[in-house]
Write a structure and sequence with these properties.
With about 260 residues, the protein is mainly beta. The protein has 2 domains: about 110 residues, Domain of unknown function (DUF427) (Metal Binding Protein, Guanine Nucleotide Exchange Factor, Chain A, Beta Complex), CATH 2.170.150; about 110 residues, Domain of unknown function (DUF427) (Metal Binding Protein, Guanine Nucleotide Exchange Factor, Chain A), CATH 2.170.150.40. It contains no helices and 24 strands. The strands form 5 sheets. A 7-stranded antiparallel sheet has the order 1-4-5-9-8-7-6, with no helix packed on it. The protein has a 7-stranded antiparallel sheet with strand order 12-15-16-22-21-20-17, with no helix packed on it. A hairpin with a 7-residue loop joins β4 and β5.
Length: about 260
C-alpha cells in the first residue's frame, strides 16, 4: 500500500496540465542492479495538476535495455510509443513511453517511465519514493512546546508537551509525539505500510481498540525518514481526520476528507 499522491480533496498548489519545467537535479533509476537512466537534463511534466512526472532524454537512457512494444497511442504531448524494459531475467513490459516528436517544446526524444517498474529512483544521491517531489510543495518539521492531546471516543490515546509539528503545503498540520507519551495499551500493531515522496516509508502502523471496537490504522511512524524530516524519526502521529485533537486545550476541527493515509 502506498500513499497516493493524487489529492484533489485538499487544497494544494497545482500546476497546469502539460506544463513543463527543467529538473535542476541529477535523476537516476535502477532495475535489477543496472542503472537504466542517468541524466541532468530531465523535465518535469505535469500530467495531472498535483504532481509532475520525469521525462528523460533518450540519449540518457540505456537503449540496450529497451524492448520494442506494439503500436502507438495519441496524447496531448504527441504520439507515444510503448516499450518494455529487460535486464537479464527481469522484464517490465510496457513500462516506457517514448515521445519521438512533441508539439510541446523540450519533450521531443524523451521517455517517461512507469514509476513502479523501476526498483529505485534517485534525486542526486537520495532515494525518492512514490513519485517525483513537487517543486512547489514545502514540508517542514518544527519542534514545539505546545500541548497536544489525542482522543478517540473520549479515550485519551496520547498527550505531549514536546510535539514535532509537520507543515506540508496544502495538507493539515500533523502532530508527531514521543512514544513515551502514547498509550500503547490501547494500540494494536498493523501490517500496513505506506510511502511518501517527502518523508520516506513508514515502519509502523497501529489501530486503536476502544471498548469492543477496533479503529484501524489511526497512527503511524517513520523510524528512518528522509533527512529533511529527521525530527520525526521514531515519533508517532495520528490522523487528524479520525481522532479528536486538542492543541493548548482547544479542540481542533477535524479535516473533512473521504480517505486518509500516513504519507499525507
Amino acid at each position: 500500500m502506498t500513499d497516493q499522491p493524487n489529492r484533489p480533496d485538499y487544497p494544494a498548489i497545482t500546476t497546469e496540465v502539460d506544463h513543463v519545467e527543467p529538473v535542476p537535479r541529477r535523476i537516476r533509476a535502477v532495475l535489477a542492479g543496472e542503472t537504466v537512466l542517468d541524466t541532468t537534463r530531465a523535465r518535469y511534466v505535469w500530467e495531472v495538476p498535483f504532481y509532475p512526472q520525469y521525462y528523460i532524454p533518450l540519449a540518457d537512457v540505456r537503449a540496450d535495455l529497451l524492448v520494442p512494444g506494439d503500436g502507438t497511442e495519441q496524447s496531448s504531448r504527441g504520439a507515444v510509443e510503448r516499450y518494455g524494459l529487460r535486464v537479464g531475467d527481469t522484464h517490465r513490459p510496457g513500462a516506457v513511453s517514448v515521445l519521438r516528436e512533441s508539439p510541446i517544446a523540450g519533450l521531443g526524444d524523451t521517455a517517461r517511465f512507469d514509476w513502479g517498474a523501476l526498483d529505485a529512483w534517485y534525486e542526486e544521491d537520495e532515494q525518492v519514493f512514490v513519485h517525483p517531489r513537487n517543486p512547489y510543495v514545502r514540508v517542514d518539521a518544527l519542534r514545539s512546546t505546545r500541548t497536544v492531546r489525542v482522543e478517540r471516543d473520549g479515550t485519551v490515546l496520547a498527550e505531549s508537551s514536546s510535539p514535532v509539528l509537520v507543515f506540508e503545503t496544502g495538507l493539515p498540520t500533523r502532530f508527531y509525539l514521543n512514544r513515551t507519551e502514547v498509550d500503547f495499551s490501547r494500540l494494536v500493531p498493523s501490517d500496513t505500510v505506506t510511502a511518501c515522496p517527502y518523508k520516506g516509508t513508514t515502519t509502523g502502523y497501529w489501530s486503536a481498540r476502544i471498548g469492543e471496537r477496533l479503529h484501524p490504522d489511526l497512527a503511524w511512524c517513520y523510524d528512518f525518514p528522509t533527512h529533511q524530516l529527521t525530527p520525526i524519526a521514531g515519533l508517532v502521529a495520528f490522523y487528524n481526520e479520525r481522532v479528536d485533537l486538542f492543541l493548548d486545550g482547544r479542540k481542533l476541527e477535524r479535516p473533512k476528507r473521504p480517505t486518509a493515509r500516513a504519507g499525507d
